[in-house]
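Supplementary Methods, section 5.1.

A reviewer requested that the exact input to the structure prediction be made available. We therefore reproduce it here, unchanged from the version used in the analyses.
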Amino acid sequence: MRKTCLLALVACLAIAGCNTSKETSIAASADTPSFSLAWSEYPSWSVFGIADELGLIDGDAGAMGQLEQKHNVDIVLKEAGYDSCLNMFASKECDAVCMTNMDALIISPSRSAVAVLPTSTSNGADACLVTKNIADLEALKSHKVYGLKGSVSEYCFVRGIEKAGFQEADFEFTNLGPDVAATNMQQGSEEHQAIVVWNPFVLQTLRSAPNARVLFDSTEIPGEIVDMVVMGADSLEKPGAQEFIAAVCDAFYAVNQELEGDNSDQVLAALGTKFSNLELADMKTVIQQTQFYKTAAEGKALLNSDEFKTTMDTVKEFCESHDLVKGATIGFGSDAGEVNLKFDSSYLP
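The structure derived from this sequence is encoded token-by-token as follows.
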């Protein structure tokens, strides 16, 4: 089904005049700069898998797609689980990685980094789900809340209850992976009546557990959980780094243009095959709950905003108070100086 969907997408784009496919790839020359990007399944990161299928980039080492040829850079895509991607980045096994703003901060003392491309923000994709016998946050105090500690799930939970005027100390957040937490609620576990998970677990749980509902979600904290491409500061010093970022940005925005065009359903369905094999109807919900920064203008507006600077202060305070990071420094713009984590919109086209 995945292959059929992707082949149909390539055919549709060819008819529409988008002359891209893997067949147009060429071999990189020996002196072509090469950079690697680690990505895991998530809506705005799976875009790079689609860009590879379309031949906009060729994720294989030594082969160059259309945009790599344009910028004369060889991009090696490394698809792996999210934790594996973070480990690859921290150990310098890749030049850039797809991760959240919060995890970028946590990792930055180990490897100084620059966020070069915001891809999306959670707008309901992270949620606190409860069974219907838990009426409100006051009632939630007497139940354990299961979710992945030290992740955006815990951040979403803490920020959500704070927004509602409650204190974190009044609740018991218990560490459990999102897949296990979601499965337990779906199977009607008496113990797991409150969980915090992200998509696709949110969608799957609401569909499979008729007694489940959303108590609150990330719409309460707009623009605080941000997905992005982050590059190692050391890799930025390598020849060809600017061209690498330009090609990555071009690929991301090119697929976003297709998501807005006449073939949007085909592109979205293909994206679903790269993100947990979700069907088209689910993906239409997913991209509402994971809002893409579709253009460079939208990305610049985020990174240059005072609101995002305040957000990162909040994220840093959360990470430090939960012993996730200590002493990390944050800067904004190309003139931010020597900091652990920089957000720099100047790399956007």
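The radius of gyration is 20 Å. These observations are discussed further in the main text.
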